[in-house]
Amino acid sequence: MRSPAGTRSAEPGRPNRQSDKYTRFVSAGLGRELASRLGLPQPAVLRRYEPGAALITGPVLVEGSSAGADALAARLLDWDLDVRRHAAPKTKLGAIIVVLDELADPSGLSGPVRSVGASLRDLSANGRVVTISRPASADLDPAGAAGRNAVGGILRSIAKELRHGATANGIILGDGADTTSVSALGALRFFLSGRSAFVDGQFLTVATGSGELPQDWDLPLAGRVAVVTGAARGIGEAIARVLHRDGADVVVVDVPAAGEPLAAVANDIRGTALQLDITAEDAGERILAHAKQRYGRLDIVVHNAGITRDKLLANMDAARWDSVLAVNIIAQLSMNRKFLASELFHDHPRIISVASTSGIAGNRGQTNYAASKAGVIGMVSATARLMEPFGGSINAVAPGFIETDMTGKIPFATREVARRLNSLQQGGRPEDVAETIAFLAAGSSGGINGSVLRVCGQSLVGQ
Ligand code: NAD
């Protein structure tokens, strides 16, 4: 996670410095032909979000015969989509949405799922499959739970079968939500759009109908004030830039040693810089004081700052262990206590914490880092109920292999294997993490609370 000060590694719309040359080589001309003949991986150039661009190209097929499917299909017409309720052979599709909200048992899967199978060959490059279903819980009858849980196996398998940059993700509707609830629509739009380019094989639970849709989908954060920690470079810098592009005023925070690149980021995005070590006891108060003085409010907190100090546990010293835990989780816990107690942060606040797939799967040499990131996931799930009184939410984003200066320093062969070990056969970009965070920061995700969303291209590491 190190890059030279001042690196512009992740400006939305601009290629990352560490971009994957192999992907570019095999995506056209001689390179494509060669890779095809030799049976080498052919990662697609992913469709990424551009403000003002079409949400998706081509018709959207809504499969399913429930009232929820009808209501959703009608609602999607508001987005100027070409919505189809029946497949027409050989018509290229932009997306297939499978609504299974009334599934009662596994035998109900055969019709809709085989129908999706028949349309998959017509899915365009960078197309989307999205399932909408209900959660399997232990208090259901066994057949109902089997059917609902089966959706997980289907969706994750489809994601592994898709090619050419297409992805498959699922929305799970809790008791308080239906297919046209605000956050069901928000999550659906995120999964259909280029914002979710590197999110694949994942589920998002929409628990309630809370949240609100933006007046302008290209400026979902207009009028909101955000703080991003660790924003002088890398993923944090990309988050600050994307939140600004989406309409927020942004306070960028980093250690005093990164003051110069931090000021440059703040300047570029017309935000403000706050030099601060987040492990300082008064870090929460200082962020609140800065936000109050400059903007009079604070709405969005992105806990991105993080460090690694890798060592096998047998060789782990106290300094390595303590510093990683202090920055990656203990500082967040302390700052959140201050934020939650402040009236400045009580208007539908949002907290998004950056975890890691290492916190889910564990990683050799990273007991300290994996502990801190698994800790983040635990903290997020237990803080969710504390956000409810303010109409707020807290969620975690768990990146997999992201093309940063850190991963750029991994020896070539190891890096090449690590970045291909996912369904999209490539590393993600800092802005892929940033887009996901911006989605979770928006009003349209208000019904999503206490979740972990992986941005990993359906990494083979972990679940
Ligand atoms: P990076 O090292 O490039 O940037 C981290 C930033 O945090 C730096 O600017 C650093 O100065 C700042 N920071 C560190 N300690 C701080 C402190 N005490 N107070 C304030 N700022 C501090 O890292 P990155 O690759 O951009 O990673 C960002 C986040 O994403 C981290 O939480 C990391 O664990 C997580 N992550 C990264 C990857 C990846 O592939 N790069 C994968 C999974 C998770």
What does this structure look like?
Residues 224-400 form the Ketoreductase domain. This is 3-oxoacyl-ACP reductase. It holds the Pfam family adh_short_C2. Residues 1-20 are annotated as: Disordered. GO terms for molecular function: oxidoreductase activity, acting on the CH-OH group of donors, NAD or NADP as acceptor. The chain has 463 residues and is of the alpha/beta class. Helix content is 38%, strand content 15%. The chain is built from 15 helices and 13 strands. The protein has helices spanning 21-25, 29-38, 67-76, 110-120, 142-161, 182-192, 234-245, 259-268, 283-294, 318-341, 358-361, 367-387, 405-408, 412-420, 430-441; strands at residues 60-63, 83-84, 93-99, 123-133, 167-173, 203-206, 225-229, 249-254, 272-275, 300-303, 350-354, 393-399, 452-455. The strands form two sheets. Strands 9-8-7-10-11-12-13 form a seven-stranded parallel β-sheet, sandwiched between helices. The chain has a six-stranded parallel β-sheet with strand order 2-1-3-4-5-6, sandwiched between helices. Strand 4 (123-133), helix 5 (142-161) and strand 5 (167-173) form a beta-alpha-beta unit. The two termini are 24 Å apart. Nicotinamide-adenine-dinucleotide (NAD) binds at residues 1-3, 229-230, 232-236, 254-255, 258, 277-279, 304-307, 327, 354, 356, 399, 401-402, 404, 406-407.
Which key terms come to mind for this protein?
SDR_fam, 7-stranded parallel beta sheet, disordered N terminus, binds nicotinamide-adenine-dinucleotide, 463 residues, 15% strand, 6-stranded parallel beta sheet, globular, alpha/beta, KR_dom, 13 strands
